[in-house]
Amino acid sequence: MGKRIKSQNRGKGTPTYRAPSHKYKADLKHINFEGLVKAKVIDIEHDPARNAPIAKVKLPDGSERYIIATEGMGTGHIIECGEKVSLRPGNITYLKNIPEGSPVCNIESNPGDGGKFVRASGTFALVVSHEETRTLVQMPSGVLKWFNPNCRAMIGVVAGGGRTDKPFVKAGKKYHKYKSKAAKWPVVRGVAMNAVDHPFGGGKHQHTGKPKTVSRNAPPGRKVGSIAARRTGAKR
């Protein structure tokens, strides 16, 4: 009898695959405002939940909260949140108030949800055009997407750009990276395993030994490879 494969363990939700959410600092959302609100950055910190740095800000009422940090933001930086703000990185306003060609990040999907798009380190989107009832934004992927003009966004580029340029150099560094995430590492190919560990394992040389396409209704443990593939191979 074969062993339970990796995808079955992941679906079960064993500790190896469970997100260490008890380490996460905060749910990062936009600062709510009526009129003009000014917040002061008091610290730049690391959050285990993400690769981009986060900023700890102090609001006028004395409360503190976390927001996504943008490039150029530092301790003592004043963030403006409101209808009419300057085009300084880190300021938060409605998409309809941001000029065309401006870089933005942490864009709301629906007005008031706190920000859903463009939150990864070094990413930004560009405001392309405005219409009366919608705003066109070019996403980091190049896709053009329409947004409600009352969705809020942060001006600037998310901090942490160039993070992937520095090589890991040794496996130990990568081990510690994945140790803090809900991921199994290292990733071993199915054909490199023994026959009891994976449907593609075993044999005198590494090969799948069977068709890679599998039914959509295949049971767990056999549902690996090209699942319910309409076509396989190079496009001709």
TrEMBL record:
UniProt superkingdom: Archaea
Any one of the GO BP annotations: cytoplasmic translation
Region (Disordered): 1-20, 200-236
Domain Large ribosomal subunit protein uL2 RNA-binding: 11-81
Keyword Ribosomal protein assigned: yes
Keyword Nuclease belongs to the record: no
Full protein name: Large ribosomal subunit protein uL2
Cited Gene3D superfamilies: 2.30.30.30, Nucleic acid-binding proteins, Ribosomal protein L2, domain 3
PROSITE patterns, sorted: RIBOSOMAL_L2
Quaternary state and interactors: Part of the 50S ribosomal subunit. Forms a bridge to the 30S subunit in the 70S ribosome.
GO terms assigned for molecular function: rRNA binding; structural constituent of ribosome
Family according to the record: Belongs to the universal ribosomal protein uL2 family.
Domain Large ribosomal subunit protein uL2 C-terminal as annotated: residue spans: 87-220
Pfam families tied to this protein: Ribosomal_L2_C (PF03947), Ribosomal_L2_N (PF00181)
Gene Ontology annotations for the cellular component aspect, listed alphabetically: cytosolic large ribosomal subunit
Role, per record: One of the primary rRNA binding proteins. Required for association of the 30S and 50S subunits to form the 70S ribosome, for tRNA binding and peptide bond formation. It has been suggested to have peptidyltransferase activity; this is somewhat controversial. Makes several contacts with the 16S rRNA in the 70S ribosome.
Signal peptide span: none
Keywords: Ribonucleoprotein, Ribosomal protein, RNA-binding, rRNA-binding
